[in-house]
Amino acid sequence: MVVNPVRNMSELIALEIPESLVKKVKEIAAFNRQGIEEMLIEWIDRTINDIPIEALPDEQVLALCNLQMGEEQQRVFSDLQSRHSEGLLNAQEIKKLNELMQVYRHGSVRKAKAMQVAVMRGLIPALNAIL
Question: Alpha carbon of 101 to those of 17, 35, 75: distances in Å?
Answer without folding.
Answer: 34, 25, 13
